[in-house]
Design a protein that fits this description.
This protein has 182 residues and is an all-alpha fold. The chain has nine helices and no strands. It folds into two domains: 105 residues, Rna Polymerase Sigma Factor, Chain: A (Orthogonal Bundle), CATH 1.10.1740; 64 residues, Orthogonal Bundle (Arc Repressor Mutant, subunit A), CATH 1.10.10. Belongs to the sigma-70 factor family. ECF subfamily.
């Protein structure tokens, strides 16, 4: 809960135009967001671009955070929307004013996630339907609780559990046919 209070304070500072607070928020969450976006988009370059789009959107809309959800949940919701803008080919809303935001090179956690991209498990996840791949990314890559995943996706927790169950079963079947132990 202490980290969440710190994130809310950082987000409040971002809303006031504090770019250092945005950099700290980025450092705290970029690895998990990138892992989720990589699973969602299936492409490292696209995931990196969407992560930057996400942070730009956070910069622009931090003042709109009302505290109705955890900051982490709100960030993943922003990332999800930015990914869908990018994947649909729809440009995200234009910023109201030019924004100067920090540019960070990928960290070791991001490089490790990308390096695992060629494993049989990663290939099996890539073949899942979008709604299953998204739940896998949010639960296992991002490590979010099911209630947060449900809030991000806008579905009941039972639906998240069902999607997770079906995704895991599909992964198990795929890996079994490839001779990979579960």
């Amino acid at each position: 809960m202490l980290a969440e209070n710190g994130d809310a304070a950082l987000l409040g500072r971002v809303a006031q135009g504090d770019s250092a607070a945005l950099a700290r928020l980025y450092e705290a969450h970029a690895g998990r967001l990138f892992g989720y976006l990589l699973r969602l988009t299936g492409d490292r370059m696209t995931a990196e671009e969407v992560l930057q789009d996400t942070m730009l959107a956070v910069w622009r809309s931090a003042g709109g955070y009302a505290g109705g959800s955890r900051v982490t949940t709100w960030l993943f919701g922003v990332a999800r929307r930015q990914a869908y803008y990018r994947l649909r080919g729809t440009p995200p809303p234009a910023p109201m004013q030019p924004v100067d935001h920090p540019d960070h090179a990928p960290g070791p956690d991001e490089l490790a996630i990308a390096a695992a991209g060629g494993t049989p498990v990663a290939e099996a996840v890539r073949r899942l339907p979008d709604h299953h791949r998204e739940v896998i990314g949010l639960v296992f890559v991002a490590g979010l609780p099911l209630a947060d995943v449900a809030e991000i996706l806008g579905v009941p927790v039972g639906t998240v559990k069902s999607r997770l169950h079906h995704a895991r079963a599909a992964l198990a079947r795929t890996l079994a046919t490839q001779g990979v132990p579960e």
